[in-house]
Amino acid sequence: MRLENYVALITGGASGIGEATARLFVERGAKVVIADLDEERGRKIESELAPNAVFCKVDVSKSEQVEKMFRMTEEKFGVLDVLFNNAAYSLSKTLWDTTEEDWDQVMTVNLKGYFLCAKYALPLLKKSSHGAIVCTGSELGIVGCVESLAYNTSKGGIIQFAKSLALELAPFGIRVNAVCPSGTETPAFVKDMSRSGDYEGECARLIASYPLHRLGQPIDIAKAVAFLASEEASFITGTHLMVDGGYTAQ
Ligand SMILES: NC(=O)c1ccc[n+]([C@@H]2O[C@H](COP(=O)([O-])OP(=O)(O)OC[C@H]3O[C@@H](n4cnc5c(N)ncnc54)[C@H](O)[C@@H]3O)[C@@H](O)[C@H]2O)c1
């Protein structure tokens, strides 16, 4: 499944799932914009993927920065084929511990950020003959779990965002889908699972709950994103693809 001459913008592209997706897209022939807050990591990946990647420092929740990023993308490439809406703010807190600021921060990055990127990407995606948006949801947008109320709520919202936007953009031939990973070994995952001080034990408990008996790797999700972004998925829109080792099939 080649992505020859595709131009893709990947938010959260400097780490974890976004980074793996940027590397896979370039391997398959695409040019990528790595959009991330983390300049040091982003520049490192940009230089490793040169000349097929450009880094853009952005906070996806700030409209003026997002607008500027798509202006830069237009100047550099003239078109956008794929927006991978992926950057997110992860928070593990109960209702009682979640402050109003926490709630706003999660919703601002995870929902408003996806909205702003889709809005400002649209004029460029319309110039493509095969425009596609892929949004990272989560298994936690489908099933509930404790101590993660704001994050899970935002991920449920992302699945609905993808469905409704798919209907709105279908007349332009732009497809919109979501990928929903389960526990995937990325820096964010390792940090979260290390909170109890027993990373190995936490992982073992999680793995025991997955029918395929392993954790996800960033490349597992990247391959699903590449499929949904490609012509192979040209009749697929408004859906969410679980990449969860069978967890939500139970
Ligand atoms: N890792 C998992 O187990 C898992 C499971 C389900 C869903 N997800 C989702 O996958 C996506 C990627 O997560 P990951 O695990 O690769 O995380 P990660 O922390 O490894 O990477 C996230 C990247 O997003 C960037 N970022 C954060 N806020 C940003 C902002 N406001 N503007 C621009 N960039 C920003 C960070 O700098 C970082 O480089 C997220 O949407 C996350 O919710 C992850």
UniProtKB/TrEMBL annotation:
Keywords of the record, alphabetical order, are: Oxidoreductase
Q: Which Gene3D superfamilies match?
A: NAD(P)-binding Rossmann-like Domain
List this protein's GO terms for biological process. Answer: bile acid metabolic process
Q: Which GO-annotated molecular functions does the record name?
A: oxidoreductase activity
Specify the domain of life of the species encoding this protein.
Bacteria
Record family assignment: Belongs to the short-chain dehydrogenases/reductases (SDR) family.
Q: What is this protein called?
A: SDR family oxidoreductase
